[in-house]
C-alpha cells in the first residue's frame, strides 16, 4: 500500500514528507496499524548525532498508537483487527533478559530498535523510486500513516481513551514513570529528586506524586519548573552552587532516590550529593562524555545504575498509566502539543528549542 511518511534522508537536512510503499501483508506474528498519533522522542532526534550508525534513509517514530487494521495468519488472538493499541519497543522474546521479564535489556535491543531491525526477506518500506528504506525503527517506523509491527510490541487499550495521544506511553512517559514505579518502587513518604524536567522527567514527577512521594524537580528552564510544580514537585533551578544542600534541607538529610535525565556530569554529581546514605541514583540518558565522579559522592551505600525504558513490561505499565490518567492522577496530556504529520520539522524545532515538551504527530489529519 502507498502512504505518507516523514522520511529522514540525511543527518543534517529536514524530514521530507513522501509517498512510500509499505508491504502490507502482515507476516506471522505481525499486525498492520493505522497510526492515529506518534510522539517525537529525544531518541528520534538523536539519530542526527549518531555519527552514521543509524541507517538512512529512514522512517523514524517509535511512540505510535492507533487501530489494528490487519493481522498475520497465525496471530495468537491476543490482538485483533479493530483493537486500539499503543506500540512500544521491540525485543526478541527468547534471550535471558526477555525470559526474565526484562525486555528493555534484551540481548538484541540495539539491533532490533536502533541499528537494523529484524531480518527481512524483502524491504518493508520503499520510496517512490523503489529504493529500500532502513529497516523499521524500534520495530515501528510510526512517523507514517500506517506501520507494520510485531504484535508482541503492541499493548491493547480501552477504545474510549484518546488513542491519538497515547503513543508516548510506549517510550518517553513509560521511561519516567517506570523508573519511579518499577525501578525505585516509590511509595508514600519516599523522597525523590528528578534532574531534568522534560518529557521523561515530568512523567517521573507525575508518577511520584501519584505514588505519594515528596519530590524535588531540578531544571534550568523556568517554564519547565512551573510545570513540575503544577504536577506536585518542589521546583529548584539547576545552576546554583548550593543545589545539593538545598535538596538535603528540603528532605531532612537527603533523598532516597534520584533520577537523572540530563546526562550532565555536574548535575549527576549534584544528584549523588543530594542522596542520603544507601540512596540510589538512576540514569536514563545516554552519556556522551566521561563521567568523573567527585570524591565522597559514591560512598556510604550509595549506588548508581542505568535504567532503560523504565524497567517496564509495557503490557503491565501502560494500562496502569492509562488508569491513573482516567483517575486524574497522571495528566500526561498536558505535556502534549499535536501537529499534522506535514509539520514534522516544526515539531522538531519546537522540541529542540524547549517550546513544547512532547510533540505528537497526527498522520491521519491534514497530512495530504
Ligand atoms: Zn531478548
Ligand atoms: Zn523513545
Automatic annotation (TrEMBL):
Annotated SUPFAM superfamilies: GroES-like, NAD(P)-binding Rossmann-fold domains
Cofactor(s) this protein cannot do without: Zn(2+)
Domain of life: Bacteria
Transmembrane regions: 165-186, 192-218
Keywords from the named record: Membrane, Metal-binding, Oxidoreductase, Transmembrane, Transmembrane helix, Zinc
Keyword Iron: no
UniProt-recorded Gene Ontology molecular function terms: oxidoreductase activity; zinc ion binding
Annotated InterPro entries: ADH-like_C, ADH-like_N, ADH_Zn_CS, ER, GroES-like_sf, NAD(P)-bd_dom_sf
KW Chloroplast (keyword) present: no
A Pfam family annotated for this UniProt entry: ADH_zinc_N
Sequence ranges assigned to domain Enoyl reductase (ER) in this UniProt record: 9-361
Family membership noted in the UniProt record: Belongs to the zinc-containing alcohol dehydrogenase family.
Protein name: Alcohol dehydrogenase
Organism from which the protein derives: Streptomyces corchorusii
